Amino acid sequence: MIKQNSGPINVAIIGVGNCASSLVQGVHYYQDAKKGETIPGLMHVNLGNYHTSDIRFVAAFDIDRSKVGLDLSQAIFTPPNNTMKFCEVPSLGVKVERGMTHDSIGKYLDGVVTKSDGATANIVNILKETQAHVVISYLPVGSEMATKWYVEQILDSGCGFINCVPVFIAREPYWQTRFSERGLPVIGDDIKSQVGATIIHRVLTRLFQDRGVKLEKTYQLNFGGNTDFLNMLERERLQSKKISKTQSVTSQLDSTIKPENIHIGPSDYVPWLEDRKYCYIRMEGTGFGMAPINVELKLEVWDSPNSAGVVIDAIRCCKLALDRGIKGALVSPSSYFMKSPPQQYADSAARQMVEDFITGKREQ
User: Fold this and answer.
1) Could you count the other beta carbons within 10 Å of the beta carbon of residue 350?
2) DSSP state at residue 327
3) Residue 1 binned pLDDT confidence (cut-offs 50, 70, 90)
4) Which CA distances in Å does 149 have to 153, 215, 289, 304?
């Protein structure tokens, strides 16, 4: 077994929205968890000798005038953030810096999010000065240009990267090479929730496959009340999101399904739902004797807490890679934590791959 390092993991956040709020709250909520304790949503309290409390937030970036300049502990509870508050967070001494806009504000967010005055902060200098180890991207869906701009800053700063948004970085050979050349790890793309629409749809799809049921038609309809769903009313921003969610599900089939017979994607925005997300899944298949087998399911979750534990595990895996000098796309953590990893595996296999990565039995 590889001896693991220990100590703080310095983390920077791009995008101080609901997901960032749940992540920061979660780190503090479970800071006194005992080794061996079962924490919902975490693989282990101590993952490779890194405890949840080892995560230390050192930098944060946003473009919203209401958040820039605030301490991170205040910004995470500032509207339009509307996820549930489950932990009081003390002052962190981390000022939210002015980030880069590019294509981060869609037409439906214009007016809800007011761009902060002033110039973009020197991201590279801040990441170096704060000795950040890992950078997390929580940019809005459709932020293609902004994501790639930030990736260049991360590469120049020498940090590991966790791409929680559906802009394809870790799965693309070009970016894999760029991270490998710098000797840096990347985990991506598009975070999977603890028990969300995609993971449930994947598991049911695999169940149909393993039990010999031919899946013929399926849909997944999602709606919620956070700014992510408001932003996704702009259908032009949804291309990568729909690809990510659809391929995550179809990857569990050994055969193909006609494109017109599968529909997966965000459907609408209902403000009073706040950070709650509703999902409806229908699956139509054929079993023995051509008998029809249909499944319908409704899921209701708080969207942002549903992924925060997964990100905590991803942070610690990314730091393990930095400790060991592992570079490029991390296949095992990406396959378990993300919807669109470099390689797709069944979730049970992916989990075991991560366990082997943690102990050092598997390099990537």
Assistant:
1) 22
2) -
3) very low
4) 7, 40, 55, 25
Mind listing the pLDDT tens digit for each residue in 46-94? 999 999 999 999 999 999 999 999 999 999 999 999 999 999 999 999 9
Residues in the chain: 364
Residue 262 has pLDDT above 70, yes or no: yes
Q: Is there a contact between 9 and 319 (Cβ–Cβ < 8 Å)?
A: yes
Q: pLDDT value at position 106?
A: 86
Tell me, letter by letter, the H, E, C secondary structure of 98-122: ECCCCCCCCCCCECCECECCCCCCC
Angle at 16 between CA 71 and CA 52, to 5 degrees: 80
pLDDT at 240 over 50: yes
Distance CA 270, CA 211 (A): 37
Would you tell me the crossing angle of helices 144-157 and 173-182 to the nearest 10 degrees?
Answer: 20
Sheet architecture: strand order including 96-98: 96-98, 55-62, 9-14, 134-137, 160-163, 185-187, 328-329
